[in-house]
Amino acid sequence: MAGTRFTPEREGELYTAVLGLLRDVGYDALTMDAVAARARISKATLYRQWGSKAELVVRALRCEKPVFLDEVDTGSLRGDLEAVLEMTDDDRLEQDTALMRGLMQAASGSDELHGALISQLINPETDGVDTLLRRAVARGEVAADNPALGYVPHMMIGALAARLLIENRPVDRAFLRHYVHSVVFPALGV
């Protein structure tokens, strides 16, 4: 962020306000005016700091989800993915899934939102997964030429979307754990 410096606490309050509005009204109905009112900040400051609604929303999401997958290293791919699953709970997964479903729909009509989601949420997550997978290859757990290596992020995102679409149920840790053990590990030969 350029310009005004916020304390981490104030920035957290602002992001909480953004995510509260996002949950209440959805992305399309969320306005910078509403964020400014809820967060008790000027709209000019919002635009000066974040530039756009898309950037502000995605930064708020990233701040709320500060999981750094590349820092997870238990010594095995199984252990790493189990550790990642333990970093969240079912309530959080349900909230995140609902938010992401709404944002994916909004992103289909907004190149700006789509670009912000890719650069600030999706790419850091897939980079983290790639780091976990490269370590697994280096340890000999996964063959370097395994064609499924490039599709692990797709498999995980697909699991989130498919559970809602097929079963109309939110994703929970039990589902993800079973999915990883039944689909991801076999595809990787683990």
Automatic annotation (TrEMBL):
Keywords: DNA-binding, Transcription, Transcription regulation
Bilayer-crossing regions: none
Domain HTH tetR-type: start-end pairs: 8-68
DNA-binding region: 31-50
SUPFAM superfamilies registered for this protein in UniProt: Homeodomain-like (SSF46689), Tetracyclin repressor-like, C-terminal domain (SSF48498)
Pfam families: TetR_C_11, TetR_N
Domain of life: Bacteria
PANTHER family, alphabetized: HTH-TYPE TRANSCRIPTIONAL REGULATOR RUTR, TETR-FAMILY TRANSCRIPTIONAL REGULATOR
Protein name, as recorded: TetR family transcriptional regulator
Source organism (scientific name): Streptomyces rutgersensis
